[in-house]
Amino acid sequence: MHKTVVIICDGNFPKTEYPRYLIRTADFIICCDGALMKFLRNSKAIFGEARLPDLVTGDMDTLSAAMQKKYADIIVKEDEQEHNDQTKAVRWALSNLDGIESICILGATGGRADHTIGNISLLMEYTRMFDLGDMNLEMVTDKETIFPITDSTEFDCGTGRQVSIFSPDNSLRIKSEGLAFPTEDVVFDNWWKATLNKATQDTVKLELNHPSIALVMIN
Predict the structure, then answer these.
(1) What is the pTM assigned to this prediction?
(2) Closest CA to 27 of 2, 52, 45, 46
(3) How many Å apart are CA 176 and CA 161, to the nearest integer?
(4) Nearest to residue 106, comparing CAs of 153, 146, 72?
(5) Among 32, 97, 39, which residue's Cα sits nearest to residue 59?
(6) What confidence score (pLDDT) does residue 196 get?
(7) What band does 168 get if pLDDT is binned at 50, 70 and 90?
(8) Chain-wide mean pLDDT for the chain?
(9) Does 218 score more than 80 pLDDT?
(10) What letters, b where the CB count within 10 A reaches 16 and e where it falls short, cover 142-166?
(11) Residue 164 host element (H or E)
């Protein structure tokens, strides 16, 4: 059983304790391509000793031939270019690991802006690509936690936390409880429309007028 899976992308490697705690306590660790090098440089600080991830996957365009040969026994190379390495890692985990309760994606931001935007938006796409059921899927950085929603929900975030909501569905309306600024009249026709809100209570409730896709970002 691999209840908690951490996927580390080749962006900014986590520096703060919470995402490093997620790495340290994960049941299975997947590095995307060149993220292996960053993992190797940081593993001793995280675990108290040097160790390898459980798997490395991607098209290997950012991992040298020498490193691919050295760590061949934990590498699964996927050459197809229809999906990025983050998606390949999520797909591999869902296809090969049993009992997954949560997938946490780290290191997906902080590099090129187009990679960052693409990686974050893919969280919504995964809810359509894969049968996630009750699985917890989130992206964690040194500053925020991001997760997709597909219907009305509530979540604990803590009073005073910054909360932003994004959606590509301009027919979606979201009624909220526990946020400083009302959201029910927001038309999601641009990214900024429901950003920079603030939790006024520990638990925030969001009521969607129909099932759709959206992202919640908590800072």
Answers:
(1) 0.95
(2) 2
(3) 15
(4) 146
(5) 32
(6) 96
(7) very high
(8) 95
(9) yes
(10) beebbbbbeeeeebebeeebbbbbb
(11) strand 162-166
170-174 CB contacts, 8 Å cutoff, 24+ apart: 171/210, 171/212, 172/208, 172/209, 172/210, 172/212, 172/214, 173/208, 173/209, 174/206, 174/207, 174/208, 174/209, 174/214
Strand-pairing partners, residue 103, are: 5, 137
The candidate with the shortest Cα–Cα distance to 173, out of 161, 182, 164, 181, is 182
Tell me the β-bridge partners of 215.
Answer: 148, 166
Distance CA 66, CA 21 (A): 30
Task: Scan for tokens 């059983």, then name that residue.
Answer: 1
Q: What's the rounded Cα separation, in Å, for the pair 93 and 2?
A: 9
The residues, any chain, with a CB within 8 Å of residue 155's CB and separated by 6 or more, are 147, 203, 204, 216
Q: Which residues contact 32 (CB under 8 A, 6 or more apart)?
A: 7, 8, 9, 10, 56, 57, 58, 85, 86, 88, 89, 107
Question: If you average pLDDT over residues 138-160, what whole number do you get?
Answer: 96
- Letter for the amino acid at 32? C
Question: Does 1 score more than 80 pLDDT?
Answer: no
14-69 pLDDT, tens per residue?
A: 999 999 999 999 999 999 998 999 999 999 999 999 999 999 999 888 888 999 89
CA angle 149, 92, 14 (to 5 degrees): 65
Identify residue 150 by its one-letter amino acid code: T
